[in-house]
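Let us practice reading a record.
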Amino acid sequence: MARKKLHRPIAAMAKKIREYRALKNRPRDSERFALDYETMRRPLTQKRLPVRAWEDARSESRLFALLGRLPRFGVGRTLTRKSWLWEHDEPCYWVIARVRADYTAENMDHGRAWGYLTFRGKTEEEVREIDKVMYHDWRVVPKHEEEAFKKFTPVEEETIRYLPYPPLLRAMILAQWQKEGKPINEEPMIDLGKLTDSPRHRAKKKASGTPV
């Protein structure tokens, strides 16, 4: 018979106190992501940035370094990232909805921000927290360029209906056709439409629905 676990209120209170002290003494983001631009090291951890990030660290800005220069910390403004401009032709940007600046940080260039994300022309309806705010690749879209920057005409994606069989399976199908005496007038292809309409696919799609 298992022993009944005794309730130890003093031990439970001591555990809560330790957790509170650890939470209170944890380094702030302004300490974690501080950077010495001469040595390219973070003073807290002494970790060095990758060499390929040095140019951006010296020439580009973090998110809050830009928001701190804007009225109302940039609420309502559009910001994008250098990496998005290079990688995608479709517009990618954040529209700032809410900002919580760290007033203990020097120049108030750290904190948390929330907004509406548009990635590759698709806009999310819900507000969510902005990630990678400490990266040195954020850029403000000028107000007079916002309309042109956001303008996007989606291109219809081509749907593929047929795919060729793998070589071994193709050879087996051709051999079967030859054995049955069927004329080989066309290349055997996989019909993706039949696969998506199969009972197994419908059952799998139904089973993967949103749980209530």
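A brief commentary: The chain is about 35% helix and 15% strand.
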